Amino acid sequence: MEEKEIGKVSGYFNHIGVAAIKLSGDLKVGDKIHIKGHTTDLKQEIESMQIEKENVKSAKKGDHVGIKVQERVRPNDKVFLIEK
Fold it and tell me: Could you report the per-residue pLDDT of 50-76, keeping only the tens digit for each?
């Protein structure tokens, strides 16, 4: 499976388990992502995504999205799209 870099974590909200991600590529609900950093290595499917607290099904380059994540991520972790 190939991975393509599509963004970077800009923040993490511990109390709600949400990563803020600045996109450099397109992303949609149902996509599988890999968040990788110095101490981060997380693969998961996107179940929901928000822009400005509004639920969205897809987002594009330049968007800033919030995604619920299963474990802690850190600012500057890279976000990859896992391509089937």
Answer: 999 999 999 999 999 999 999 999 999
Q: CA-based angle 39:33:21, to the nearest 5?
A: 75
Rounded-to-integer distance, Cα 12 and Cα 19, Å = 4
| Alpha-carbon span 59 to 42, nearest angstrom | 20
Paired tokens of 40: 């981060």
Q: Is 56 exposed, middle or buried (CB count within 10 Å of its CB: 0-12, 13-18, 19+)?
A: middle
Regarding pTM above 0.85, the answer is yes
What is the set of domains in the chain, with CATH numbers?
A: 2-83 (2.40.30.10)
Q: What DSSP assignment string belongs to 17-74?
A: TEEEEEESS-EETT-EEEEE-SS-EEEEE---EEETTEEESEE-TT-EEEEE-SS---
